[in-house]
Amino acid sequence: MRYRNLGAKQVSAIGLGEMPMSIEGRPDEKQSIETIHAALDAGINFIDTADAYSVGGPDTGHGERLVAKALDSWAGDKSAVVVATKGGHYRPGDGSWHVNGRPEYLRAAVEASLRRLNVEAIGLYQYHRPDPSIPYEESVGMLKEFLDAGKIEMAGISNANIDQIKTAMSILGPGNLVSVQNQFSLIFRSSEEELHFCDKNNIAFIPWSPLGGIGRTKSILANYPAILEAAKNHGVSPQQVVLAWMLSLSDKVIPIPGSSRKETILDSAASTELMLNEEELRKIGASS
Ligand SMILES: NC(=O)c1ccc[n+]([C@@H]2O[C@H](COP(=O)([O-])OP(=O)(O)OC[C@H]3O[C@@H](n4cnc5c(N)ncnc54)[C@H](OP(=O)(O)O)[C@@H]3O)[C@@H](O)[C@H]2O)c1
Question: From 117's CA, which of 18, 82, 172, 276 has a CA 20 to 30 Å away?
């Protein structure tokens, strides 16, 4: 495993996206805990979840409870593991997703996440998605309040454009915005501008749905000959090739492929060892 900077911490260059283990279609708890343990055993020390990763309503917080339980029953060194969670999204339980960026909502959300994760301070707390009905400054101001109160160790934002990143940088103060988590994959490249901005400003860029989304990766990658060719040349999966390409874009990039099986997260973890040549990288970058 190779490691990258997340604020002052070092995290695995590939993190584990927890969402497929908590939303509709999720596996049973035994399989999920085995998946998380396999990731940790492989040197992955960065797990991304959210309070909303659940089927909603009373199931809210499923992902955080699952991660806390998996860490509790893992024999390794938990102090080196960074659990990233998020607040600002909620699911009422009818399959829908909604945003709430009100300060009082976020205050209650961070307290609930602290309880579920059973920690004194959350490793990385991310404002999940801008709420258009609330000034961004007000919602992101909560991250500053949580940092100052010691409730969170590091602050990040998600689904943010350049203006919102700049706002968060200015509100949080120098060096305190450690990450931006945006959708980025072969089929969704519109966050390239934010990726380059993060690269220049020493902010980790965390691509979400890096493989194109839950249950879609195989059919999507079948349309990319450059990926399939490189996978064949190196005798690895096309998913490993995508992740290795993404890692090559900047040393600030930390993809978080979602997994609900240990086989897939172990395969993704191995992408940190895959070195693609210049020609392969050029062809993949040029494919659309
Ligand atoms: N900030 C946000 O708004 C936001 C939104 C969406 C997601 N996220 C985060 O981003 C993470 C990743 O996104 P995602 O889960 O939506 O999509 P994804 O990572 O693009 O794809 C996940 C799917 O890929 C499969 N997979 C993973 N590694 C594989 C491999 N090496 N070989 C073959 N198949 C592989 C998984 O299969 P199995 O399930 O069978 O293992 C799963 O079906 C989420 O888990 C979540 O933590 C954040």
Answer: 172
Q: Which domain holds residue 259?
A: 3-218+239-275
pLDDT tens per residue, range 151-207: 999 999 999 999 999 999 999 999 999 999 999 999 999 999 999 999 999 999 999
How far does residue 4's CA lie from ligand 1's centre (Å)?
Answer: 20
From residue 181, how far is each of 81, 160, 256, 277 by CA, in Å? 18, 8, 10, 27
Give the residue among 67, 45, 63, 46 at the shortest CA–CA distance from 54: 63
Distance 114 CA to ligand 1 centre (A): 24
Domain holding 146: CATH number? 3.20.20.100
Residue type at position 116: R
Q: How far apart (Å, rounded) are the C-alpha atoms in residues 117 and 279?
A: 44
